[in-house]
Design goal:
By secondary structure, this protein is mainly beta. It has 3 helices and 65 strands.
Length: about 750
């Protein structure tokens, strides 16, 4: 297929998405908490700012004022990992590893996302990466892993595509540059050039190959054309204006930046500045200034801006090193999120589908406090690896227990690790069937007597209890397990008001445990009890004592969970919903990763590939469905959800970052002293729901117009209710003042509030 035909297919079969971001609305509803420690690229701009990107977020730094600004999914970024960045004429051009092209307008604060490359089926998935941008004569040249694409930034459309391999085959182009009338390309197969106005430019045979080898860079230094070749162990510089001028620097090159009067080469341990005559100056060495590893660098004025792969962005000037990255978690991988005093703490375990730890395992804990983001470093944690969950002690809130899926339980007091419980100082056990030391604790909970319960995978006595006096005991799980040595992992533990417990297993369904009269019940349910399969990943007990069960193939509910141990053959139930006139099973075949119940008894359910859902109390109504495509979620893979019922915030932890959403469900109150109604007044064009919070559970709420005509009535499930501003006939109410009457279940306390509605 010729280049022109492929170009035509690319134009006709793909589409673009325009995202216009309302910054005010996004700031009210969503917030992002991204890591800025892994700097993948730095670029100066014509507006005087320094721009850097870290995985899937961008930030700018003003060297004069020191001001930092971030650009994340909340402002419209796609959430996919960034591979290239270019800033020119108030436009930020963003390239991604999956081929997405983003253009952010700094003046209008709007974001345009073009998915043409990502969706092009003629390009293999591993060849869609955008490596570099070159803007010349109102054309944007995209150097990619398949060739060069020419983009019209004014009309937002691709114009041409050049494949430089033999017979118009795809080869990776790392950089391109226009010098005079010629377009030059640095590729994995050599240096290429052509007259940019050549009518046969789309044919690879028209290009001239001037050198072979893996050329990773080409650009201008003081109007001199210089190419960079990399072997993996050294970098070779070649002046294309004078073939006799060459330079070799040993080391593995990690990045390069062409500036107006110099070329900056970044190696893991050192930074070099190259002039147009290939004169070399080593301007920084990582070990000399206390940094662990460089990833990128630029020089602006008298300052050197140094990017690292784990410590963030620094400015080195006058012998002083200053950290300038925005604050955030250690890394984006949010495996678990727990609210400690209503602020998120994040664990960063990396487990595969079968709960097996993967590298890296030696990660600290990120914590958000009133002073901002900080961390508990791995070096403080007595060797505790792969932290999965963090649990706050309900009696001693200054104590937090960190579950390690390799090392046991880490006890943290006043934000400082105190001790690591393992097989030497506790009742915890390591797996024994392979020659690996690993204490795989998945979760801990507290019962009403102050006992701490934990669940350990791959051991027979996996359910452990630590009493308030420090003694340990165990429960043998062999009677309910299929094979202790095969794919044995557990979900979270939920504990009922009567101290009975439930937890899910990869291969044994739902396991329940209850003590009674000096003995105990140990019981499981699985496929014979109407579970979709026996691989249970999430459990939640709601306000009505119903157990919600998430499996890798769908959702079930065990109604009246307190009868689990009494019924000889308890059966779970699917939820049937109507959609488009058809009946179907809710979340059928979905891989469910997490379930949480909010203050209004509504269910937040996260999935492995379809984003997150909010369902009504009984699951029959979908109230929200957030995905990467319609919200600031950075991915549709949800790992964890944390609810701040005091403030209505919902935190979503994903492999690609942490974001929060301002929900409308709040914890119930003991009195009506602090009822809030918002928005108030309701202004024209408001299309959301009015929220009334500060209620007791089961509060009776009536809303009337000023003449006393009833327009809405409901009962709260928790501490808040919502009203869609419609009357009993389904029509939006007229403008005016409305009275809100609230009373508690027994009628002993009541309150009246007002709201102004303007249509």
């Amino acid at each position: 297929m010729s280049g022109s035909v492929i170009q035509y297919v690319m134009k006709k079969s793909l589409y673009c998405i325009l995202i216009l971001v309302c910054v005010g609305l996004s700031a009210q509803q969503w917030q992002g908490y991204y890591s800025y420690n892994n700097i993948n690229g730095i670029t100066p701009s014509d507006n005087g700012l320094i721009y850097a990107y870290a995985e899937n977020a961008i930030f700018s730094y003003d060297p004069l004022s020191g001001e930092l600004q971030t650009l994340t999914t909340v402002e419209g970024l796609s959430g996919d990992n960034i591979s290239a960045l270019f800033v020119k004429d108030n436009q930020i051009y963003v390239g991604h590893y999956n081929g997405l092209l983003g253009i952010y307008d700094l003046a209008t604060r709007s974001y345009f996302l073009d998915s043409s490359i990502e969706r092009n089926q003629t390009i293999p998935e591993d060849k869609k990466t955008i490596h570099h941008f070159e803007l010349f004569d109102e054309k944007l040249y995209l150097s990619t892993a398949y060739g060069i694409s020419v983009y019209d930034p004014e009309n937002k459309v691709f114009r041409d595509t050049y494949y430089l391999g033999p017979g118009n085959s795809q080869i990776s182009v790392h950089q391109s540059v226009v010098d005079g009338a010629f377009l030059y390309a640095a590729t994995e197969a050599g240096l290429y050039s052509i007259d940019a106005n050549d009518p046969s430019i789309i044919e690879s045979e028209s290009w001239t190959q001037t050198a072979t080898g893996n050329w990773v860079g080409i650009g201008l230094i003081e109007d001199k054309l210089v190419g960079v070749k990399s072997s993996g162990t050294s970098a070779e510089l070649q002046s294309l204006d004078d073939a006799s001028v060459m330079k070799t620097i040993s080391g593995g090159l990690v990045s390069l930046n062409y500036l107006e009067n110099r070329l900056i080469l970044s190696f893991k341990d050192k930074i070099f500045s190259i002039d147009s005559a290939l004169g070399t100056e080593q301007i920084s060495q990582a070990a000399d200034i206390g940094l662990e590893g460089f990833s990128a660098a630029v020089i602006v004025g008298q300052g050197v801006f140094l990017g690292t792969d784990s410590q963030g962005l620094f400015r080195f000037s006058g012998g002083e090193l200053k950290e300038i990255s925005p604050p955030g978690p250690l890394v984006n991988n949010a495996f678990g999120v727990t609210l400690i005093n209503n602020l998120p703490w994040v664990s960063h375990a990396n487990l595969n589908r079968w709960y097996t730890p993967k590298s890296p395992t030696s990660m600290g804990i990120s914590k958000f406090t009133p002073q901002g983001w900080s961390e508990i470093g791995f070096e403080e944690m007595f060797g505790a690896r792969s932290i999965t969950r963090l649990v706050q002690d309900p009696v001693q809130p200054n104590t937090v227990y960190a579950c390690s899926y390799q090392s046991g339980i880490l006890v943290i007091e006043d934000e400082v690790p105190q001790i690591l419980w393992n097989e030497t100082n506790s009742g915890l056990e390591s797996l024994t069937f392979v020659n690996v030391y690993s204490i795989r604790v998945g979760d801990v909970v507290f019962d009403s007597k102050g006992n701490l319960w934990s669940i350990t995978a791959l051991v027979e006595n996996g359910l452990k209890r630590r009493s308030p006096n420090g003694s340990w005991s165990s429960v043998d799980l062999i009677p309910v397990l299929v094979d202790i040595n095969d794919k044995n992992g557990y979900s979270n533990i939920v504990i009922a008001p009567d101290d009975s417990m439930f937890f899910g297993s990869i291969s044994a369904g739902v396991i329940g445990y209850k003590e009674t009269g000096g003995g105990f019940f140990l019981k499981k349910i699985g496929v014979p009890n109407n579970l979709p399969n026996d691989d249970v990943r999430a459990l939640a007990l709601d306000a009505d004592n119903h157990l919600w069960i998430g499996t890798t193939e769908g959702l079930r509910v065990l109604y009246n969970a307190s009868r689990f141990f009494e019924d000889e053959n308890p059966q779970t139930r699917e939820i049937i919903v109507e959609e488009g006139g058809n009946l179907g099973e809710l979340l059928n075949n979905q891989f469910i990763t997490v379930i949480e119940v909010d203050g209004n008894n509504q269910k937040w359910i996260g999935t492995a590939g379809s984003g997150v859902f909010l369902f009504s109390e009984d699951g029959t109504e979908t109230l929200q469905h957030f995905t990467k495509e319609n919200s600031p979620l950075p991915t549709n893979s949800i790992r964890t959800i944390a609810l701040d019922n005091e403030n209505g915030l919902v935190y979503f932890g994903t492999p690609n970052g942490l974001v929060s959403f301002q929900g409308n469900a709040f914890a119930s109150k003991d009195s009506f002293e602090k009822i809030e109604v918002y928005p108030n007044p309701v202004r024209p064009h408001f299309s959301g729901r009015l929220t009334i919070r500060g209620l007791k559970t089961d509060s009776h709420v009536k809303i009337t117009d000023i003449s006393g005509h009833l327009v809405f009535e409901t009962q709260s499930e928790g501490g808040s209710v919502q009203w869609d501003l419609r009357n009993f006939h389904g029509n939006r109410v007229r403008s005016g003042v409305y009275l809100i009457f609230v009373s508690d279940p027994d009628g002993t306390e009541s309150a009246v509030e007002k709201v102004m509605i303007v249509n």
